[in-house]
Amino acid sequence: MQGVPAGDGHAGAAALPGGPGPGGAPMTLLEMSAEYAERAAALRSRITALRGLARQEKDADAAKLLRSRVAALLPLWQAARDLARITAHYYDKEAHR
């Protein structure tokens, strides 16, 4: 690509900025699954709270804004939930049938 400098790594790809994650060790799929599950739970909690606020809101415009925030969070929650399930059962033979 023109205008993009080549990196120093394999095939010209440079490492991303920043150091290793917490603990400095690679993360296992089960650890990733737990992280995704935590994120999914937090998103689900926020979605539930926003839905409650939207139901209580008297102003139609404010309620519509809250519902649009819920609509934006739903795909993120679904993806985190699905990734938690996939990474937890990645090596299970039955999970890929």
Question: Would you kindly provide a written description of the structure presented here, covering whatever features stand out?
Answer:
- The chain has 97 residues and is an all-alpha fold.
- It has helices spanning 29-56, 60-88.
- Helix 1 (29-56) runs antiparallel to helix 2.
- It is elongated.
Give keywords.
disordered N terminus; 59% helix; mainly alpha; single chain; 97 residues
Short description:
Helices cover 59% and strands 0% of the residues. It is mostly helical and 97 residues long.
List the total number of helices.
Answer: 2
Shape: elongated
Unreliable runs: 1-18
Average of pLDDT: 81
Q: Roughly what fraction of the amino acids lie in strands?
A: under 5%
Which range best describes the helical content: under 10%, 10-25%, 25-40%, 40-55%, 55-70% or over 70%?
Answer: 55-70%
The number of distinct β-strands equals 0
- Structural class based on helices, strands and sheet pairing: mainly alpha
**SSE sequence, one letter per element:** HH
Cα radius of gyration in angstroms? 20 Å
Secondary-structure blueprint of this entry?
Elements: H1 29-56, H2 60-88
